[in-house]
């Protein structure tokens, strides 16, 4: 089956209220031709989700969070639950981003629990996996990503979950894997997702590529087999670049 591509913008720890003008501009540029081809969402910092939601909805975009706690509520100062993100207007949440894994020591088990919490709250988790440069150079990229998929996806997850392959060495560096490497990894990821979820569900799971996606390389990367969209960092901060990436689908 042909999946509707998802182009998701991860703003990371960037964005003040003034940045909402970019979401307004994204909506204005998200025309009918693009809408039928690709779903667009933006994941701003949690402080902007409720405000972003109103503006994004007018423009036909969705909104996501960047992380959630594994529990629904409780004594976890500074954390945000999936239910809170949903309440603020999010429909997606990124979990297991490599920056969370490295900055906060999140393990596959933590990521799996967060993904399960997201699903219970009615959010679609975007579950991130990806190898480091040292792991790729050692020839371990496939085995590392395979183990992350096995460990980070809830075994009973539905087919509407999203998996994002983001090689750590490609994030924010301007470097990208070759088209052949992306094709190899995404085909392998789909096999491992099938092994984890079973029942033919993997055919409906969108697998995004992330890491230095820009308007100049999006067309090439987005048309690789088994690439069902992009998770975009730096180039999602402005409407011009984000729509430039999404336009790979028009
Ligand atoms: O980490 C990323 C998205 O989650 C990718 O970031 P860049 O697009 O800035 O490389």
Automatic annotation (TrEMBL):
Belongs to the triosephosphate isomerase family. Keywords: Cytoplasm, Gluconeogenesis, Glycolysis, Isomerase. Coiled coil: none annotated. PROSITE patterns: TIM_1, TIM_2. The lineage of its organism: Bacteria, Pseudomonadati, Pseudomonadota, Alphaproteobacteria, Hyphomicrobiales. InterPro entries: Aldolase_TIM, TIM_sf, TrioseP_Isoase_bac/euk, Triosephosphate_isomerase, Triosephosphate_isomerase_AS. This is Triosephosphate isomerase. Involved in the gluconeogenesis. Catalyzes stereospecifically the conversion of dihydroxyacetone phosphate (DHAP) to D-glyceraldehyde-3-phosphate (G3P). One of its GO terms (molecular function) is triose-phosphate isomerase activity. NCBIfam families: tim. Pathway: Carbohydrate metabolism; erythritol degradation; Carbohydrate biosynthesis; gluconeogenesis; Carbohydrate degradation; glycolysis; D-glyceraldehyde 3-phosphate from glycerone phosphate: step 1/1. It is an enzyme of class 5 (isomerase). It comes from Methylocystis hirsuta. Pfam families: TIM.
């Amino acid at each position: 089956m042909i999946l509707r591509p998802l182009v998701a913008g991860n703003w990371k720890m960037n964005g003040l209220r003034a940045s909402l003008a970019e979401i307004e501009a994204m909506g204005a540029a998200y025309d009918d031709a693009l809408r039928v081809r690709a779903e667009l969402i933006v994941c701003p910092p949690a402080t902007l989700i409720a405000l972003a939601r109103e503006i994004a909805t007018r423009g036909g975009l969705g909104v996501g969070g960047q992380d959630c706690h594994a529990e629904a509520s409780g004594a976890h100062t500074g954390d945000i639950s999936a239910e809170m993100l949903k309440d603020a207007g999010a429909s997606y949440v990124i979990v297991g981003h490599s920056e969370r894994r490295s900055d906060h020591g999140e393990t596959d088990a933590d990521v799996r629990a967060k993904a399960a919490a997201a699903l219970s709250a009615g959010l679609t988790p975007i579950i991130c996996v990806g190898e480091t440069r040292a792991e790729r150079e050692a020839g371990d990229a496939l085995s590392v990503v395979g183990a992350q998929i096995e460990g980070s996806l809830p075994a009973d997850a539905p087919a509407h979950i999203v998996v994002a392959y983001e090689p750590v060495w490609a994030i924010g560096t301007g470097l990208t894997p070759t088209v052949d490497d992306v094709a190899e990894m995404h085909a392998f990821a789909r096999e491992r997702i099938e092994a984890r979820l079973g029942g033919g569900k993997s055919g409906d799971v969108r697998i995004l590529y992330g890491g230095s996606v820009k308007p100049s390389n999006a067309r090439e990367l987005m048309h690789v087999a088994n690439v069902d969209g992009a998770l975009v960092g730096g180039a999602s901060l402005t409407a011009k670049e984000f729509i430039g990436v999404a336009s790979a689908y028009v």
